[in-house]
Amino acid sequence: MNPSILILLMLLLLATPDPDVPALEPKVEEAIQANLEERKAAFWKECRTAAVEQASRFVDSMLLVQAPWTSEDSLLPPPRPERPLLDSARIEVDTTPLRPILPVDKKIRSSGGSTSSSG
Q1: pLDDT tens per residue, range 49-61
Q2: Tens of pLDDT along 59-78?
Q3: pLDDT surpassing 50 at residue 119
Q4: 3-state secondary structure of 1
Q5: Residue 3, Cα to own-chain centre: how many angstroms?
Q6: Predicted model pTM
Q7: Is the Cβ–Cβ distance between 60 and 54 less than 8 Å?
Q8: CA 46, CA 7: separation in Å to the nearest integer?
Q9: Terminal CA-CA length for the chain
Q10: Are 6 and 14 in contact (CB under 8 A)?
Q11: What count of other Cβ atoms lies within 10 Å of the Cβ of residue 41?
């Protein structure tokens, strides 16, 4: 007989339910299902945490690989724009006569700029 057929028959015999095993009580079945749900939730939480950590390490390593090329661009300020050429026809010569901004005291001017009083 072919060994693969023999293995298949053995698996079928093992997979069939045993008629001698009594059914579980409903309370026990509920407790088993609750425990199974808790284990599933814990497994998926651990799986998500591991996936996020692995993705974070992957992204961090990608950023470290790209860092030498991006650091040069981000650390240099942008170039200064060029100044436009001045149009000589638009520049007007200011012919306004100059005058002092603050009023000039005639006493200070006549004494030679000395601010000390001889009083």
Answers
A1: 999 999 988 888 8
A2: 888 888 877 666 555 666 77
A3: no
A4: coil
A5: 59
A6: 0.36
A7: no
A8: 36
A9: 138
A10: no
A11: 10
